[in-house]
Specification:
The chain is of the alpha/beta class. It folds into two domains: about 50 residues; about 120 residues, 3-Layer(aba) Sandwich (Glutaredoxin). It is built from four helices and seven strands. It has a seven-stranded mixed sheet with strand order 2-1-3-4-5-6-7, sandwiched between helices.
Length: about 170
């Protein structure tokens, strides 16, 4: 009789162990599935990042700070320090009066200078029929620039013609 009881206890332990393993595998499978879906979503989110090519003078470091600002805002930024900015601006149809510290190509647009991510997102959402947008020069307190901002700054439209400056946004 003692052998029968012993066998019954071992059998019960074995069944409990098998049930525990099965439950563990089920949880692991569901967790793995969730991680796979999450990783897939993450991959799609990474693919949706807007690509930016920032052309800069190799001697200017605020351009690198601006690139980091854009990365922090969710853009995928490539920095090119080897190009002649005058040639790039000519190819992009950016007049001298709109020149900033650097020029970026984002989608089909030129973005001159230290323009905020909000203005860039507005540009990409509205899709206006313009060359791009600009904050000319290197105003202090703009993204990537040190110093204090002295007040609201206009972000100008870079039009397709010689029309006077038109304000696209105010920062």
């Amino acid at each position: 009789m003692s052998d029968y009881r012993s066998m019954k206890v071992h059998r019960r332990s074995l069944l409990v162990t098998i049930a525990s393993i099965a439950a563990g595998l089920s949880v692991a499978r569901h967790s793995y599935g969730a991680e796979t879906v999450a990783a897939g979503d993450e991959g799609r989110a990474a693919q949706k990042k807007t690509k930016v090519t920032l052309y800069r003078n190799p001697n200017c470091n605020c351009c690198l700070d601006y690139a980091e600002y854009l990365r922090g805002a969710g853009f995928e930024v490539t920095v090119d320090s080897k190009q002649d900015l005058a040639v790039i601006r000519k190819q992009l149809h950016v007049p001298e009066k709109f020149e900033g510290c650097h020029v970026s190509v984002i989608g089909n647009y030129a973005v001159e200078g230290h323009v905020s991510a909000n203005s860039i997102r507005k540009l990409l959402a509205e899709h206006p029929a313009i060359v791009g947008i600009s904050i000319p020069g290197m105003p202090p307190g703009t993204p990537g620039m040190t110093g204090r901002k002295t007040g609201p700054l206009p972000v100008y439209e870079i039009g397709n013609d010689a029309a006077p400056k038109k304000v696209f946004a105010t920062e």
